[in-house]
Amino acid sequence: MSRPRFHLAFPVDDLDAARRFYGGLIGCAEGRSSEHWIDFDLYDHQIVAHLAPEECQPAVTGAVDGKQVPVRHFGVILDWVDWLALGERFRDAGTDFVIEPYVRFEGLAGEQGTFFVRDPAGNALEFKSFRNDDMVFATDLEKA
To answer: Chain-wide mean pLDDT for the chain?
Structure first.
């Protein structure tokens, strides 16, 4: 393993719906599972959907760029082409975006594409991409 991988466990209220969303729509390979949880491979990271309906609550939002961003969310940073393709896959599936795909910091060093969706249990996910991967942690947003 050349780069550490994260592990994230999160609640869902329907494992079949989670399987359709993560496995079918996003394309995550399924790992181990039981009647209470499912492992998914989210771009080489292990995420685990645990059946816990009582834990499924809508996330509080906060203002970012004039948009209401779910404060509790997770996601991945993709290559630009993969980010565009995934956004189209969600659009083609008729997904209701929490925040439609758009580009932040256009023309600046930290230029990035981002969008937010919710899984069937209401968990918020952000998918983003940087024009320049070296700018993921950039603090100086001067012209690129």
So the answer is: 93
